[in-house]
Amino acid sequence: MANSEALNTICHTQLVLPVSGQMICAGFPSPADDYLDENIDLPRLLCQNQPATFLMWVNGNSMKNAGIYNGDLLVVDRSLKPQDGDVVIAVVDGLCSVKRLLISNGPPQLLCENPEYPPFIIEEQQVEIWGVVKCNIHWQENRKP
Length: 145
Known about the structure:
By secondary structure, this protein is mainly beta. It is 10% helix and 35% strand. The strands form two sheets. The protein has a seven-stranded antiparallel sheet with strand order 3-4-9-5-6-7-8. It has a two-stranded antiparallel ribbon with strand order 1-2. A hairpin with a 2-residue loop joins strand 5 (87-92) and strand 6 (95-102).
């Protein structure tokens, strides 16, 4: 299924799943009763502006310290105005890349979230901010679709 077909299917399918009213502990668990609090419609949550929303697979590890790993799926909204600190899809010299946008101190930069990669100074290269990453769907390594 093509990227646009997959997104169209996701955005036009009603998928309402129950959400636990209890936060899940990522450290030592505390004893508490399980209960369901509300439902979330995932397509509506992920595709608030469907014509401007795209899915993109990640290839590489330059954003691993932001929790974005090789093989993850990004939900990208082209209608959002990029803000300082946003994770964005940038077209750098004609190639798409996911980076963190910094525009508050000095010249605008695109930063990798991996110290093995240098930042891009936007003034030195031809750059277009293509969209803002709204969500990252991370698959366990052995459970990718």
